[in-house]
Structures are given as C-alpha cells and as structure tokens.
Write a sequence for this structure.
C-alpha cells in the first residue's frame, strides 16, 4: 500500500484514488447516518432542517455517483451531534 504523499502517483493513479476516496467518504457517512437512529439513545441532528440531507444520503447508499455537497453539509455544524 502506498501513501499519497510518499513516492507520488502518476496522473491516472491520482484520478483513481479520488474515486476511491469519494466512495470511502460516502460509505462512511452512509454508515454513520444509518446508525444514528439505532443507537441508544438515538443521536439527533443538531439542525432538524438537515433531515432532507440525511434522507438523500440514505437514498444514495447503493449508488456510485452522487452529490457530494449533501455529505459535506452533514459533516459541518448542524450535522450529527453526540
């Protein structure tokens, strides 16, 4: 396994890593958002107006293409709180 900042990557490898990183971020936030309601006690959103973003995240779970903006919005203030 190579590290991004050690020994470098060629252009094609960089493009592939971007896709891998985006998928990993999506998978992680889908896991977090899906688990929030199953925890005891459940973890609420700090800002209930973000519910539509949580719904979007859950809907894209099986997809490979998605809008990263909704994920970014949930990772900042108003997202999951615990």
């Amino acid at each position: 396994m190579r590290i991004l900042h050690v020994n470098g990557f060629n252009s094609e490898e960089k493009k592939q890593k971007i896709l891998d990183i985006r998928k990993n971020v999506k998978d992680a936030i889908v896991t977090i958002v899906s688990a929030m309601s199953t925890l005891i006690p459940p973890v609420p959103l700090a800002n209930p107006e973000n519910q539509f973003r949580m719904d979007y995240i859950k809907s894209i779970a099986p997809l490979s293409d998605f809008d990263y903006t909704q994920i970014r919005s949930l990772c900042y203030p108003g997202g999951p709180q615990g």
